[in-house]
């Protein structure tokens, strides 16, 4: 069953985050992931947006999503993102 990784991101260092955003798609694609949304253009319908950006990535299944997140390829990038931004990241199964 496909899953979504949904990230709310608050950027602390725009330059470092730009480098991360340039490099991350290759690692996502290597695990069968596909970006559905990756934008600062957020329209809030309820509540307050206390973040700068939303990212939604679809993976074929939970196993591949977690394999990507824990992969050696992504490890260094993840550390870069930790330095560049604060994020809240969840895995959500899709309904089929």
UniProtKB/TrEMBL annotation:
Coiled coil, from the record: none
The family database entries (Gene3D superfamilies) matched by this protein are listed as: 3.30.70.100
The protein's name in its UniProt record: DUF1330 domain-containing protein
Q: What InterPro entries does the annotation carry?
A: Dimeric_a/b-barrel, DUF1330
Q: What is the lineage of its organism?
A: Bacteria, Pseudomonadati, Pseudomonadota, Alphaproteobacteria, Rhodobacterales
User: Domain named DUF1330: which ranges?
Assistant: 3-93
């Amino acid at each position: 069953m496909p899953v979504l990784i949904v990230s709310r991101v608050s950027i602390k260092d725009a330059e470092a985050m730009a480098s991360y955003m340039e490099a991350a798609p290759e690692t996502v694609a290597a695990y069968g992931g596909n970006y559905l949304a990756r934008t600062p253009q957020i329209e809030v319908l309820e509540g307050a947006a206390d973040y700068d950006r939303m990212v939604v990535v679809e993976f074929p299944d939970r196993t591949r999503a977690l394999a990507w997140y824990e992969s050696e390829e992504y490890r260094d990038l993840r550390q870069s993102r930790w330095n560049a931004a604060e994020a809240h990241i969840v895995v959500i199964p899709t309904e089929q």
